[in-house]
Amino acid sequence: MPAFLKVFIESASFFGNNIPIVAVASLSFIAYLVVSGYLREAGVFFLSIFSLLYSVLLKNIFRIPRLDTYAGDPTKLGDMYRFPSSHVIFYVSFWGLLLFLTFKKDVFGDGLAVYLLRIISVYHLLFVGISRVFIGAHTVQDVVAGYVFGAVYLAVLIYLSR
After folding, report:
1. Alpha-carbon distances of 111 from 34, 35, 114, 118, rounded to whole Å
2. Tens place of pLDDT per residue across the chain (162 aa)
3. Domain assignment of residue 108, given as a range
4. In this structure, how many other beta carbons lie within 10 angstroms of the beta carbon of residue 12?
5. Taking Cα atoms as reference points, which of 77, 76, 31 lies closest to residue 57?
6. If DSSP codes are grouped into helix, strand and coil, which group holds residue 118?
7. 83, 97 in Cβ contact below 8 A?
8. Are 92 and 146 in contact (CB under 8 A)?
9. Is 71 helix (H, G, I), strand (E, B) or coil?
10. Share of the chain residues as helix, strand and coil, in percent rounded to the nearest 5
11. In terms of pTM, does the model score above 0.70?
């Protein structure tokens, strides 16, 4: 596999591996929504972050151990078990809601920024699952379950935003 393709795929997991970046991005979007007068959307976007806790709850219900190929820290909250993929659940909730909001009203306008947000959101949504399997953190089953559980959480968020 070409090196650029490997980096492109593996990079999809980067956002979910960096809590400070998640915090800054989340707070930035929430601040933008509040300042723009979209308080309901800001609140719902805040709830998207709680999909991380939802994924940890699911992992502790299923209790399926990590793969031998996993190089993470199994003592960290949410890293002890692999099923379902927390990255995928969070990405579907976070990036899925962001993508939804780019099509709702004029939350982000219609300029270049909204198209960039859509491209970034779709990239993360499409490649996080491939990335998690590729780096050895999850199986296809873990990733598919992450998409399903993430879609359920996202559906609730979208319902709350209406």
Report:
1. 20, 18, 6, 11
2. 788 888 888 888 888 888 889 999 999 999 999 999 999 999 999 999 999 999 999 999 999 988 777 766 656 656 778 899 999 999 999 999 999 999 987 788 888 989 999 999 999 999 999 999 998 889 999 999 999 999 999 999 999 998
3. 3-161
4. 22
5. 77
6. helix
7. no
8. yes
9. coil
10. 70, 0, 25
11. yes
> Residue 65: helix, strand or coil by DSSP?
strand
**Does residue 63 come out as left (phi exceeding 0), alpha (psi in the -120 to 50 range) or beta?**
left
Total of domains in the chain: 1
